[in-house]
Each structure stands twice: as C-alpha cells, then as structure tokens.
Design goal:
CATH superfamily: Metal-dependent hydrolases
Radius of gyration: 19 Å
Structural class: alpha/beta
Oligomer: single chain
Bound molecules: zinc ion
CATH architecture: Alpha-Beta Barrel
Number of helices: 11
Largest sheet: 8 strands, parallel
CATH class: Alpha Beta
Shape: globular
Order of helices and strands: EEHEHEHEHEHEHEHHEHHHEEEE
Helix content: 25-40%
Length: 348
C-alpha cells in the first residue's frame, strides 16, 4: 500500500473565491494547497471588464496570508455584449480566460450568454489573442431534464463551437457525464476538461442518503448535479487514463451554511480546505495514484501554456480531522465531509 507520494505543487483550475469577508475567509485555504488558481468571475455584479478583474485580483492578493506564495489567474465573465476590443486589453493585463455561463445555469449566472452566436466576434478576438474559453456546459431549457443538460449541450453547442473555432483553447469545466468524458478524450481540436473531487468520489445517491439513510444532504448539492454511478466511473476512468486533456478544478464554491441548509439551497460544494486530500482518496480508491501528479500539477499548466511549478508537496496516508464548520464572515461555512476524518493529508 502506498503510504506517501511526492508531487509537483498543484494548481486549482476552477475555484470560486467570492468577495468581501467571504473572500478573506476562503483565500487562505486555496493558497495553502495550490500555487495558482483560475478564479471564477461570477460575483454580483459579475467581473466583465479588465479593470474590474484587476481590482478583484488585488483584493484576492490582499487576503493571501503573509509568507504564502499564491497567484490568482483572472478571468472575465462573457456576456452577450462583451466588446471584442476588451480582449486585447484583457490580454495585455495578464487575464488568461473568459468564462461562458449559459444564462441561468448556476449561481449568479443571470448575466450569462443567451445565444452563443452573439459572442462570435468576441470569440474570434480570443482565438486571435490566445485567451482561453472556459465553459459551464449545460443547456438551461426547462424542458430538458436536469440530469441530461450536459449531454445535450455537447451536441447543440460544444461540438459546433470546436468546428467554428479550431484554434481557440476550450476548457469544458467540471464535467460530470460519460458523454462529456468521451467527447473530451476523442474530439479534434483544442479541448480539455476539469474534473472536481466530488464528482470523482460520489454519485447522485450521496445527495439523498443522509442520517438514517433517507435524509437530504444539501452540502452534496452542486451544479452540474452529481450523476449516476456509471458517469462517476467514466470520469474516474478518464482521469486514470493518463490523458493530458483532464486536469484538476475543484469548483470549490462556498455558501454560508444557512444558505445551504435552507428551503432553497444554493448550489456548490466547499472543498478548498481538503481538496488534495479528497483527490488523493479518489485516485487511491481507483488504484490510480500514479496519475495524480499529471492531473493535479502538469496537465493544467501545459494546456494553459504556463510552466509547471518546481517546488514539490507530499501527500501522506495520515488521519486528517476536518472541522465541521469554519468562520465565513459573520456566518459559518461547512466543508464537504466536515466533521469526518479523512485518510490522506497534504504537507506543503
Ligand atoms: Zn464553478
């Protein structure tokens, strides 16, 4: 049995850091685990301009504890009206990507894209300047079953997009289905995917099996929602295949516990406190620990055109008691698996 592994310092290619007091509460957890992170722009109001992104970046850096090295990689929120000339400004300011949310797909996405065709001039500018397009890949039509929205998005939007923009680098974010895993593994074009720890560890039963076996567990509710076991298995097979097209993106998405334990529960799992521990558990469970370093530390930088880190970290098989809740401004925040003891621990 492997007792410890050493890997190059990992990065998180998809995280929600929020703003204000919430930002100050969560940034230290991500900075403790990762060297860099792609920061999602879905604040309220969303980060749609270079100027807003740079101001947000300085608030993030101000929340990094002294002595920690952490680089936030900034993104803009793509709307129907993002002007193509914003892309050159973004590139010059070091912004690396734009995030496409179909309007209404998830938390704070009402400003999202209503029709992909409306963004084509901006996508052309991104292709020209080498900015990446990060996609929340779900249709939002109310007549499409919630569990089928990712698969339908592939046919309707993702496949045509790859044909129309062969040189645009596209990341299919937080994939959850065997259809998405197969599409990314085999598609022609510049496509890769992030995979969360919770979609590698859990199927949809996890949402419905709390307490005595029949309680609803809101902390396991996220979007795209957890799927059937066959899909979890396909995601695990994809990341364990060693394909460079799959890399780490936690989609850690903090909500105050009263927002999760409410009659209308916010979508998102907070995993930043124990991200590498959860990924280690998933890869270990599949006998695939030898592929964790490429997934966590090499494939992401390679796709983004950035160097990998040179420092290393260690994961040890060592009991790690995760607190049930931590402060979140005036509220509290419950990590996924809070109150439980995890089997792995990150030493950085
Ligand atoms: Zn997200």
């Amino acid at each position: 049995m492997t007792e410890h592994i050493t890997l190059l310092k990992p990065d998180d290619w998809h995280v929600h850091l929020r703003d204000g007091e919430a930002l100050k509460a969560v940034v230290p957890y991500t900075a403790a685990q990762f060297g860099r992170a792609i920061v999602m722009p879905n604040l309220r109001p969303p980060i749609t301009t270079t100027e807003q992104a740079l101001a947000y970046k300085s608030r993030i850096l101000a929340a990094v504890p002294a002595g920690m090295q952490f680089e936030p990689l900034m993104t803009l929120y793509l709307t129907d009206n993002t002007p193509p000339d914003e892309i050159a400004r973004a590139k010059a300011a070091g912004i690396v990507a734009l995030k496409l949310y179909p309007a209404g797909a998830t938390t704070n996405s009402d400003a999202g894209v209503t029709d992909i065709r409306k963004t084509y001039k901006t996508l052309e500018a991104m292709q020209r300047h080498g900015l990446l397009l990060l996609i929340h890949g779900e249709v939002t039509d109310s007549d499409i079953d919630l569990f089928d929205r990712e698969a339908v998005f592939i046919e309707r939007t993702m496949a045509p997009l790859l044909k129309d923009f062969p040189a645009l680098k596209i990341v299919f974010e937080h994939i959850t289905t065997k259809e998405a895993a197969q599409f990314v593994a085999t598609a022609h074009g510049n496509i890769a995917a992030t995979v969360t720890a919770h979609h590698l560890l859990y199927n949809r039963n996890a949402i419905f099996t709390g307490g005595a076996g029949s309680g609803l567990r809101p902390h396991y509710y996220c979007l795209p929602v957890l799927k059937r076991e066959i899909h979890r298995q396909a995601l695990m097979d994809a990341v364990a295949s060693g394909s460079p097209r799959f890399f780490l993106g936690t989609d850690s998405a903090p909500h105050a516990s009263q927002m999760k334990e409410a009659s209308v529960c916010g979508a998102g799992c907070f995993t930043a406190m124990s991200a590498m521990e959860l990924y280690a558990e998933a890869f270990d469970g599949a006998g695939a620990l030898q592929h964790l370093e490429a997934f966590a530390s090499k494939n992401g930088p390679a796709f983004y055109g950035l160097p990998a880190h040179t420092q290393t970290v260690q994961l040890k098989r060592e009991a790690f008691a995760l607190p049930e809740a931590v402060p979140f401004g005036a509220a509290d925040l419950k990590p996924l698996r809070g109150g439980e003891t995890l089997a792995w621990r990150l030493h950085s």
